[in-house]
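Before the break, one more example. Copy the sequence into your notebook; we will annotate it together after we see the structure.
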Amino acid sequence: MTRFFQDIEPIRFEGPDSTNPLAFRHYDPGAVVAGKTLRDHLRFAVAYWHSFAWEGGDPFGGRTFERPWYPQDSMESAKLKADTAFEMFRILGVPYFCWHDLDVRPEGASFAESRDRLFEWVDYVLPKMEETGVGCLWGTANMFTHRRWMAGAATNPDPDVFAYAAATVKSCIDATKRLGGQNYVLWGGREGYETLLNTDMARERQQAGRFLQMVVDYARKIGFDGAILIEPKPQEPSKHQYDFDVATVYGFLKEFGLETEVKVNIEQGHAILAGHSFEHELHLARSLGILGSIDMNRNDYQSGWDTDQFPNNVPEVALAYYEILKAGGFTTGGTNFDAKLRRQSLDAEDLILAHVGGMDTCAAGLKAAARMLGDGALETALTERYAGWETQAAQSMLAGDLETAAARVEAEGLDPQPRSGRQERLEAIVNRYVG
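Here is what the structure looks like once it is written out:
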């Protein structure tokens, strides 16, 4: 046991009337909702990078946090960081964590040293995972921080960087498999461009597609049976990224014959940056059959960038989980808190409080979503709105040609009148469950 959290006791469920900030008000992990426990529905994961590797800097200022494992430049510090991480997992009672290679080990002087340090970390945490029962939801590679990635990884104009990216991802898939990871995620942090003046988009898309095919082939070759996920993001740090949103990713997967092999890990903040709502991206992924997992956070709507704040908006979260429940819930995926403290939130207790608040928000949202889906008010209204398309005449028209469809207008004297979409009524229905 580390001393970083100063003997904070495991967080308990105390119910909605509790005023204890170090208690759950809505998240009762064993409570059964819609046929499953909240623990099994939500499948919470802690993001190693924001919780333990991020130092509190921003584009205008440096580190604000002081942690016992700083500087993060030795395996001794990496092991202390791992000790602290598993202590927090125990306090929160989360079932999973997620990681990048650079989060968990320092960069080595060579690729081989970096790889060996990653595997040393794996050896160090495997007994902790067995002891605590905490699993790996997913692993991934950081191919955006080091200067070698400044022009991308798989999309880089230098083939040597492509090779280095291949070696990096191979080592991270190997590590994820050893940890029993249920997914492997690719986030193209710099797979995009800053200016078209020095960019061949066709070439870079081909490189990205071929790289992903290689990743899928290797994962299956070594018997990794988890899901392969892409995380869409439209911009930042690149001006334009090739994995812009769910629709763009699906078109990319179709182009390279991977639509049945790869799914998406959708982040709330990235959806907002793409000009969408979180539920829009989830709905589309569900309808396309590629919904895998989620990163749960929120953006500051007054800022034009990805602020990665912990969720606190129950109505927004409820609509997100409504889509997830309609998809049948998570299989290999889960709710990863890709969220970080504000750089003024310096204390160890702040890290616990942030996760408690986020977990409670998600639990309240999921319970509201389950009630909405169970009562069927929204689904009934949706069915009624499209009922005309269920008739034999409509189905025959859809299967026919343009001339036959057009002929109906004069033959049947059609003069269709607009029908109310009843948006305000539906919004009021939602508020009955989240109010």
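The chain has a mean pLDDT of 97. The longest strand covers residues 135-140. Try to locate both features in your own notes.
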